[in-house]
Write a structure and sequence with these properties.
Elements: H1 3-10, H2 13-113, H3 120-140, E1 143-146, E2 158-165, E3 174-179, E4 181-184, E5 187-190, E6 192-198
Helix pairs in contact: 2-3
């Protein structure tokens, strides 16, 4: 007879049942304990996967928004370039239309000068009429002449061709305008060519 069998015989039936129940409970507890880490790991994995999916969805949405914004900016840039080109083309067309009228007047003046009844007075009158038409065309586009005779010399608007001694004009003032300048609004198209006064040498 073995020692374990001897012990079982010595123990009452109640004690054996208690020990068996306790052993079963221990095994069940160990089984539960061993299954809890697996469930926790699965929960964490599911949570991480959900967070990853959400982050990927946000990243894709942000990327799509970026692509749409870039496409919109490119479209706006192209529209702006197109609008500028159209505005420039329209301005050129308007100016050309005004200049064509001046050209017509010049052609008529040339034809009149070749006629038998042409006189100096008529040619001068035709030239003056054409010049007025040209001035009106420039005014429509805000192109103004710069005629600074008697004004203080301004290097931003005038270009000095020479300096001439003068007792009548103050030094550094414009004595003579050799060629008018022109400006369009605040933009200088051409400086005026001028002769500037200077003090006499003996003074």
């Amino acid at each position: 007879m073995t020692e374990s069998e001897h012990d079982r015989r010595k123990k009452p039936d109640g004690e054996e049942a208690a020990e068996s129940s306790s052993a079963d409970a221990t095994e069940e507890s160990e089984a539960i304990d061993s299954s809890e880490p697996d469930e926790t790991a699965r929960d964490e994995s599911d949570s991480l996967q959900a967070a990853l999916n959400e982050a990927e969805a946000r990243a894709e949405e942000n990327w799509n928004q970026f692509l749409r914004a870039r496409a919109e900016m490119e479209n706006q840039r192209r529209r702006a370039e197109k609008d500028v080109a159209q505005a420039r083309q329209q301005a050129v067309e308007k100016l050309a239309a005004e200049l064509l009228a001046v050209k017509d007047s010049l052609e008529m003046g040339v034809q009149a000068a070749r006629g038998e009844e042409a006189t100096v007075e008529k040619l001068a009158e035709g030239s003056e009429l054409t010049l007025r038409m040209f001035d009106q065309a420039l005014e429509k586009f805000s192109i103004e002449p710069i005629n600074p005779e008697g004004d203080r010399f301004d290097p931003e608007k005038h270009e000095a061709m020479a300096a001439q001694e003068s007792t009548d004009a103050e030094p550094n003032t414009v004595l003579t305008v050799v060629q008018k300048g022109y400006r369009m609004g605040d933009r200088l198209l051409r400086p005026a060519m001028v002769i500037v006064a200077k003090a006499p040498a003996d003074s």
